[in-house]
UniProtKB/TrEMBL annotation:
SUPFAM superfamilies cross-referenced by the UniProt entry: UBC-like
Organism whose genome encodes this protein: Prunus dulcis (Almond)
Pro residues bias spans: 164-180
Protein name: PREDICTED: ELC
Listed Basic and acidic residues bias regions: 185-207
Length: 221
């Protein structure tokens, strides 16, 4: 577990006390000390989690929400799994509701299928610790729930990184074949040019030969 940030924990304790003890969330008075203790215990052990409020679904009452990333160790490498935990008004008797939350779906996605996370239900989590919660609610805590999630997710992480699409392979370029007529004209032009160059070389050779002959005659005179 990461080391707790005491300054941050003091702020979270104050926030939790305000939300639970004097806030407008309708937690039963007899359950508020237990809710306060469980939330503070969890935030103390995992400082990457924070406290806010919200509705699990539209139309449901506002409750406390614990959100952030929990540590996961998969094949010896550390990862972070983003989650949200809704603490229901019936807590601790009623089980918390948990989702794996992927903010940027262009980068990350929930694994399909997954034994503990239902991507089709918005990342709803159902780990073994949540089963038979009502019967064993006196022994269940938020910290125990998150520890069990870390254990399950370390065996089979629910979040994976999307593979970016590969750029299309470059299309090979080939010389465009010329029509037969144009190709024949080009070949004929090259042949004429070659003949012209050879003719110019022959005339130049004759001129040089004539000059050498005149110079030889002048020398005899």
């Amino acid at each position: 577990m990461p080391k707790p940030n005491l300054t941050l924990q003091q702020k979270l304790i104050k926030r939790a006390f305000t939300e639970i003890g004097a806030g407008d969330i309708d937690y039963p008075i007899q359950h508020r000390p237990r809710i306060f203790a469980d939330i503070i215990q969890l935030l103390f052990h995992i400082p990457s989690l924070g406290l806010t409020r919200g509705r699990f679904q539209k139309g449901e009452p506002v409750v406390l929400v614990i959100k952030g990333a929990i540590p996961v160790f998969y094949k010896g490498h550390p990862y972070k799994t983003p989650i949200k935990i809704w603490v229901p008004l019936g807590y601790p008797r009623d089980s918390p509701k948990v989702r794996v939350v992927v903010e940027d779906q262009a980068i990350m996605s929930i694994k399909l299928p997954h034994p503990y996370v239902d991507a089709g239900a918005g990342g709803l989590v159902n780990v073994p610790y949540m089963q038979a919660w009502i019967e064993a609610h006196s022994e269940r805590t938020l910290t125990g729930l998150v520890i069990n999630m870390c254990e399950c997710f370390s065996v089979d992480p629910p979040v994976r990184q999307r593979v970016p699409p590969q750029p299309p392979a470059p299309v090979p370029t080939f010389p465009i074949p010329q029509p037969p007529q144009e190709q024949e004209m080009q070949e004929r032009h090259e042949e004429e040019r070659h003949e012209q160059v050879m003719q110019e070389r022959q005339e130049e050779g004759k001129r040089c030969k004539g000059q050498r002959r005149r110079g030889w005659v002048c020398g005899l005179l």
